[in-house]
Amino acid sequence: MGRKVFRKKKVRAVDMHRLVYLGNAALRTVSRDVKDVMQIAPVVKAMKSIVGEHQGLGLAGPQVGVNQRFFLMIESIPQGNVAFGLCNASSPCICGVVDDDTPFTYEAVINPVINSKSAAVTKDFEGCLSFPGYQGVVSRAEVIDVTYTTLDGRKIENRTLANLHARVFQHELDHLDGVMFLDKIDMSVRSPLIVVWRRSLLHRQTLIHDDEFRSRDYLDLQMLLKDD
Question: Coiled-coil regions in this chain (predicted)?
Fold first, then answer.
Protein backbone atom coordinates (compact mmCIF):
# COMPACT_ATOMS: atom_id res chain seq x y z
CA MET A 1 0.00 0.00 0.00
CA GLY A 2 1.53 3.25 -1.11
CA ARG A 3 2.14 6.23 1.12
CA LYS A 4 -0.82 8.57 1.33
CA VAL A 5 -0.03 12.00 -0.02
CA PHE A 6 -1.77 14.99 1.54
CA ARG A 7 -2.11 17.91 -0.81
CA LYS A 8 -2.47 21.39 0.55
CA LYS A 9 -5.90 22.72 -0.22
CA LYS A 10 -5.83 25.77 -2.41
CA VAL A 11 -7.39 28.78 -0.68
CA ARG A 12 -9.49 30.96 -2.95
CA ALA A 13 -9.33 34.74 -2.63
CA VAL A 14 -13.08 34.85 -2.11
CA ASP A 15 -12.66 32.62 0.97
CA MET A 16 -9.96 34.90 2.40
CA HIS A 17 -11.86 38.15 1.98
CA ARG A 18 -15.30 38.43 3.46
CA LEU A 19 -17.53 41.32 4.38
CA VAL A 20 -16.81 43.06 7.67
CA TYR A 21 -19.48 44.90 9.61
CA LEU A 22 -20.02 47.98 11.72
CA GLY A 23 -17.71 47.79 14.73
CA ASN A 24 -14.78 46.39 12.73
CA ALA A 25 -11.75 48.70 12.91
CA ALA A 26 -11.13 48.42 9.16
CA LEU A 27 -14.23 50.54 8.53
CA ARG A 28 -12.84 53.39 10.62
CA THR A 29 -9.27 53.34 9.29
CA VAL A 30 -7.95 55.74 6.65
CA SER A 31 -6.71 53.56 3.79
CA ARG A 32 -3.30 53.88 2.16
CA ASP A 33 -2.63 54.33 -1.56
CA VAL A 34 -2.33 51.28 -3.78
CA LYS A 35 1.31 50.99 -4.90
CA ASP A 36 1.08 47.88 -7.06
CA VAL A 37 -2.17 47.49 -8.98
CA MET A 38 -1.56 43.84 -9.81
CA GLN A 39 -1.23 42.90 -6.14
CA ILE A 40 -4.86 43.75 -5.49
CA ALA A 41 -6.18 41.86 -8.54
CA PRO A 42 -7.11 38.72 -6.51
CA VAL A 43 -8.92 40.88 -3.96
CA VAL A 44 -10.82 42.67 -6.70
CA LYS A 45 -11.91 39.32 -8.13
CA ALA A 46 -13.16 38.20 -4.74
CA MET A 47 -14.96 41.50 -4.18
CA LYS A 48 -16.74 41.23 -7.52
CA SER A 49 -18.09 37.87 -6.43
CA ILE A 50 -19.21 39.25 -3.07
CA VAL A 51 -20.87 42.43 -4.32
CA GLY A 52 -22.45 40.59 -7.24
CA GLU A 53 -23.96 38.02 -4.89
CA HIS A 54 -25.55 40.82 -2.87
CA GLN A 55 -26.47 42.82 -5.99
CA GLY A 56 -24.81 45.86 -4.49
CA LEU A 57 -23.90 48.98 -6.44
CA GLY A 58 -20.42 49.28 -4.97
CA LEU A 59 -17.95 47.80 -2.51
CA ALA A 60 -14.77 49.28 -1.01
CA GLY A 61 -11.57 47.53 0.08
CA PRO A 62 -12.11 48.27 3.79
CA GLN A 63 -15.41 46.40 3.62
CA VAL A 64 -13.46 43.18 3.16
CA GLY A 65 -10.78 44.22 5.65
CA VAL A 66 -8.30 45.58 3.09
CA ASN A 67 -7.31 49.17 3.92
CA GLN A 68 -6.05 50.24 0.52
CA ARG A 69 -7.56 52.95 -1.65
CA PHE A 70 -9.71 51.12 -4.17
CA PHE A 71 -13.32 50.16 -4.63
CA LEU A 72 -15.75 48.62 -7.09
CA MET A 73 -18.44 50.68 -8.77
CA ILE A 74 -21.27 49.37 -10.89
CA GLU A 75 -20.72 50.12 -14.59
CA SER A 76 -24.33 50.32 -15.72
CA ILE A 77 -27.65 50.20 -13.94
CA PRO A 78 -29.85 47.32 -15.14
CA GLN A 79 -33.37 48.31 -16.08
CA GLY A 80 -35.93 46.86 -13.73
CA ASN A 81 -38.11 47.51 -10.75
CA VAL A 82 -36.51 48.74 -7.54
CA ALA A 83 -37.17 46.17 -4.88
CA PHE A 84 -37.11 48.60 -1.94
CA GLY A 85 -39.44 51.21 -3.37
CA LEU A 86 -37.77 53.82 -1.16
CA CYS A 87 -35.67 55.72 -3.66
CA ASN A 88 -36.25 57.81 -6.73
CA ALA A 89 -38.41 55.87 -9.15
CA SER A 90 -35.77 56.17 -11.85
CA SER A 91 -32.92 54.53 -9.95
CA PRO A 92 -32.15 52.05 -7.17
CA CYS A 93 -30.60 52.96 -3.84
CA ILE A 94 -26.88 52.73 -3.33
CA CYS A 95 -27.45 49.40 -1.60
CA GLY A 96 -30.42 48.65 -3.83
CA VAL A 97 -31.50 45.36 -5.24
CA VAL A 98 -32.96 45.42 -8.71
CA ASP A 99 -35.59 42.94 -9.90
CA ASP A 100 -33.69 42.05 -13.03
CA ASP A 101 -31.88 38.93 -14.22
CA THR A 102 -29.09 40.89 -15.88
CA PRO A 103 -25.74 40.27 -14.11
CA PHE A 104 -24.17 43.39 -12.69
CA THR A 105 -20.74 44.39 -14.01
CA TYR A 106 -18.28 46.41 -11.96
CA GLU A 107 -15.32 48.66 -12.58
CA ALA A 108 -12.33 48.71 -10.24
CA VAL A 109 -11.51 52.27 -9.17
CA ILE A 110 -7.99 52.64 -7.74
CA ASN A 111 -6.49 55.62 -5.88
CA PRO A 112 -9.58 57.74 -6.60
CA VAL A 113 -9.63 61.52 -6.29
CA ILE A 114 -12.53 63.94 -6.61
CA ASN A 115 -11.23 67.02 -8.42
CA SER A 116 -14.40 69.08 -8.10
CA LYS A 117 -18.03 68.86 -7.07
CA SER A 118 -21.11 70.65 -8.31
CA ALA A 119 -22.79 73.15 -6.05
CA ALA A 120 -26.07 71.34 -6.70
CA VAL A 121 -26.77 68.49 -4.31
CA THR A 122 -29.49 65.88 -4.03
CA LYS A 123 -30.84 63.95 -1.09
CA ASP A 124 -31.53 60.25 -1.41
CA PHE A 125 -31.55 57.06 0.61
CA GLU A 126 -28.28 55.22 1.06
CA GLY A 127 -27.40 51.93 2.68
CA CYS A 128 -24.31 49.79 3.14
CA LEU A 129 -23.48 46.10 2.89
CA SER A 130 -21.44 46.53 6.07
CA PHE A 131 -24.54 47.78 7.92
CA PRO A 132 -27.24 45.61 6.36
CA GLY A 133 -30.92 46.28 6.69
CA TYR A 134 -30.78 50.02 7.32
CA GLN A 135 -30.92 53.17 5.23
CA GLY A 136 -30.70 56.90 5.79
CA VAL A 137 -31.04 60.05 3.72
CA VAL A 138 -27.70 61.55 2.65
CA SER A 139 -26.94 64.70 0.65
CA ARG A 140 -24.42 64.29 -2.19
CA ALA A 141 -23.14 66.45 -5.02
CA GLU A 142 -25.08 65.76 -8.21
CA VAL A 143 -22.03 65.97 -10.50
CA ILE A 144 -18.37 65.31 -9.75
CA ASP A 145 -15.12 65.39 -11.72
CA VAL A 146 -12.85 62.47 -10.82
CA THR A 147 -9.47 60.91 -11.50
CA TYR A 148 -8.47 57.30 -10.81
CA THR A 149 -6.53 54.30 -12.10
CA THR A 150 -8.10 51.18 -13.58
CA LEU A 151 -7.12 47.59 -12.82
CA ASP A 152 -5.14 47.41 -16.07
CA GLY A 153 -3.09 50.45 -15.01
CA ARG A 154 -4.76 53.11 -17.16
CA LYS A 155 -5.08 56.59 -15.68
CA ILE A 156 -8.57 58.02 -16.09
CA GLU A 157 -8.46 61.79 -15.70
CA ASN A 158 -11.24 64.34 -15.37
CA ARG A 159 -14.09 61.91 -15.86
CA THR A 160 -17.51 63.40 -15.17
CA LEU A 161 -19.96 61.34 -13.12
CA ALA A 162 -23.54 62.39 -12.46
CA ASN A 163 -26.54 61.34 -10.42
CA LEU A 164 -26.40 57.74 -9.15
CA HIS A 165 -22.84 57.05 -10.36
CA ALA A 166 -21.68 60.24 -8.65
CA ARG A 167 -23.42 59.14 -5.45
CA VAL A 168 -21.88 55.66 -5.54
CA PHE A 169 -18.39 57.11 -6.15
CA GLN A 170 -18.73 59.53 -3.21
CA HIS A 171 -20.13 56.83 -0.92
CA GLU A 172 -17.33 54.38 -1.69
CA LEU A 173 -14.62 57.05 -1.46
CA ASP A 174 -15.87 57.87 2.04
CA HIS A 175 -15.14 54.26 3.03
CA LEU A 176 -11.48 54.80 2.10
CA ASP A 177 -11.35 57.66 4.61
CA GLY A 178 -12.98 55.68 7.41
CA VAL A 179 -16.33 57.41 6.93
CA MET A 180 -19.68 55.66 6.65
CA PHE A 181 -22.99 56.95 5.34
CA LEU A 182 -24.22 56.84 8.94
CA ASP A 183 -21.95 59.80 9.69
CA LYS A 184 -23.70 61.89 7.04
CA ILE A 185 -27.35 61.06 7.62
CA ASP A 186 -29.68 64.05 7.38
CA MET A 187 -31.02 64.31 10.92
CA SER A 188 -33.75 66.72 9.83
CA VAL A 189 -35.58 63.81 8.23
CA ARG A 190 -38.39 62.50 10.42
CA SER A 191 -36.90 59.00 10.60
CA PRO A 192 -33.16 59.51 9.95
CA LEU A 193 -32.37 55.79 10.14
CA ILE A 194 -34.96 53.38 8.85
CA VAL A 195 -35.23 49.62 8.68
CA VAL A 196 -35.33 48.38 5.11
CA TRP A 197 -37.73 45.69 3.98
CA ARG A 198 -37.84 43.85 0.70
CA ARG A 199 -39.99 41.16 -0.84
CA SER A 200 -38.49 37.69 -1.04
CA LEU A 201 -39.01 35.43 -4.01
CA LEU A 202 -42.08 34.11 -2.23
CA HIS A 203 -43.31 37.69 -1.76
CA ARG A 204 -42.98 37.51 1.99
CA GLN A 205 -41.61 40.54 3.82
CA THR A 206 -38.08 39.83 5.07
CA LEU A 207 -35.47 42.00 6.71
CA ILE A 208 -32.17 42.26 4.88
CA HIS A 209 -30.04 41.21 7.82
CA ASP A 210 -26.90 39.14 8.16
CA ASP A 211 -26.71 36.63 11.01
CA GLU A 212 -24.47 38.97 13.00
CA PHE A 213 -27.22 41.58 13.05
CA ARG A 214 -30.24 39.36 13.63
CA SER A 215 -29.92 39.44 17.42
CA ARG A 216 -29.22 43.15 17.68
CA ASP A 217 -31.96 45.64 18.31
CA TYR A 218 -31.89 49.33 17.45
CA LEU A 219 -30.35 50.35 20.79
CA ASP A 220 -27.49 47.88 20.33
CA LEU A 221 -26.72 49.41 16.94
CA GLN A 222 -26.87 52.93 18.37
CA MET A 223 -24.24 51.93 20.94
CA LEU A 224 -21.98 50.72 18.13
CA LEU A 225 -22.34 54.09 16.46
CA LYS A 226 -21.52 55.85 19.72
CA ASP A 227 -18.43 53.71 20.28
CA ASP A 228 -17.15 54.48 16.80
Answer: none
pLDDT tens-digit map of 49-92: 999 888 889 999 999 999 999 999 999 766 553 433 333 333 34
Alpha carbon dihedral 93, 96, 101, 103, in 10-degree steps, equals 90
In a 10 Å sphere around its CB, with 0-12 CB exposed, 13-18 middle and 19+ buried, how is residue 98 labelled?
buried
Please state the domain extents for the chain. Answer: 25-225
The CATH number of 25-225 is 3.90.45.10
Q: Which residues contact 166 (CB under 8 A, 6 or more apart)?
A: 140, 141, 142, 143, 144
Report the candidate in 107, 105, 111 with the shortest Cα–Cα distance to residue 173. Answer: 111
**Torsion angle (degrees, nearest 10) of CA 22, 24, 26, 29:** 80
| Catalytic, out of 53, 126, 142, 172 | 172
| Global pTM value | 0.75
Q: Is 41 helix (H, G, I), strand (E, B) or coil?
A: helix
Please give the Cα distance from 52 to 33 (Å, whole number). Answer: 25
How many whole angstroms separate alpha carbon 222 and alpha carbon 126? 18
